[in-house]
Input
Amino acid sequence: MEWEAVIGLEIHAQLATKSKIFSGASTAFGAEPNTQACAVDLALPGTLPVFNAEALRMAVLFGLAIDAEIGHTSVFDRKNYFYPDLPKGYQTSQLFHPIVGIGHVDIELEDGSTKRVGVTRAHLEEDAGKSLHEEFPSMTGIDLNRAGTPLLEIVSEPDMRSAEEAVAYVKKIHAIVTNLGICDGNMSEGSFRCDCNVSVRYKGEEKFGNRTETKNINSFRFIEKAIKGEIIRQIDILEDGGHITQETRLYDANKDETRSMRSKEEANDYRYFPCPDLLPIVIDDEYVEKLRSTLPELPDARKARFIEQYQLSEYDAMVLSAYRDLSHYFETAAQAADDAKLTANWVMGDLSKHLNQNDTDIKDSPVTAEQLGGLLLRIKDNTITGKLAKQVFEAMWAGEGSADEVIEAKGLKQVTDTGAIESMVDDVIAANQTQVDQYVSAEPDKRGKMIGFFMGKVMQASQGKANPGQVQGLLKQKLDALANS
Amino acid sequence: MSLDRTDVEKIAHLARLNIAEQDIQEYTENLSDILNLVDQMQAINTDDVIPMAHPMDAIQRLRIDEVTEGNQRDLLQTVAPAVEAGLFQVPKVIE
Output
């Protein structure tokens, strides 16, 4: 019998509001402890929450982007539990009437096919504070700066069947929320994190197996590794005749394994009920339609446009359409270079490599889109060879100026003067009699490969500046003349 | 529907309420009475009634997304029993 994994995900996306969901305290990251926690966040007696209009706008915008039902009336509920970093003793969340109802996203699989993944719901809630257990010997330190930060919890259907599908889904949601500008998507700062529900069953079986939930994973790579490891762990247990305990687990990136969180003495009993401090939110059609008209172009639509408009391959279009800044860079450079395919290769190749190596955001790229376009123009008009262009790019990255300035300063201009190239070709032929003899005596169909040797010598002699096409043409012409004489 | 002693003990624990042993019986009876009243109401047909989320006939007002509360840490921490390095101090919650 073959095993099959069943995966559902809960993603917490921190909404990019300036102030908290129910108070006027700042949500900026990295402030001194408790300097952004006001009386409402601390749940001091007599305070009341007031809902942030921007959090509502962002949640509705997300719902529209995934083609979801938007609830006309939405209600906040209290989820009750006690923990010191939750000063109220309950988290204000939504259980019964979430803002965003059933929707879906399409993910691209490795074999090129597309799969639709259902989104069960997305609801608004507040984040908790942070507990610092290690700093003090017998006490726990509490920082409430994060308490009350708005989160959109996006719950998927259990539609995914492999770690790869799960990652494709997370990346798609990540691309949507960042394109909408409702979340900065910064996973290392915890603005976008994921809980993975995983179970396994025999293929073809309808009933789900017992599932585990692995909490708060904050990188695409860890999500993939954690799910893969959890699937293997569960299959091993079941094949040994054991059974899976429904529990919460933690992913340890250092050991690359999940482990059980000590289960609470009492099973979760959150006693949800409607929050009496907040009135129902009424969302009318006019509001929804107004927001719909502000929806920016989303990755799926942009991908289709890139294929249509620039004749990009499916894969190139997918990569280049995922993020707004990347897409904008590509389009700007492609326009400047007037060559989409060449631009796509450079953006996904040399540029991405440099951005990754230097951990630089594309917005901060030292080579601007216009400058890259300028470099590509010089490849196209044969001013420089493709090989030397990489050298020019390095110099541009190091801040040595535009492509034209670098080419001029380094004297990299391609030699296209036929007379000059011809004399180099003649010199190389004269200096390598042995190889010329071999060429002449070789079968005609073997000669093509043998030209490579002479090509290398001429390019070396020209310091890479000779036009490769011209060199090749002349070499072939002259060597074949010798062979046929 | 009526509650028994263990239900009351469990609810008290979940709510972190310390109730006296001799009061448990009375709580059990009182809470059961409330639930019995709810049972009576359950018998009424409410098929055409939209559930009410709030007794006030009003809708939520929204706040403009602005930072209006600055750093008030020193003031707010004057009421905290223990503070160190800007952090509220509580008894250690993990072993």
In short: Chain A has three domains: 3-290, 299-410, 418-484. Chain A is about 40% helix and 20% strand. Chain A touches chain B through 54 residues (CB under 8 Å). The mean pLDDT of chain A is 91.
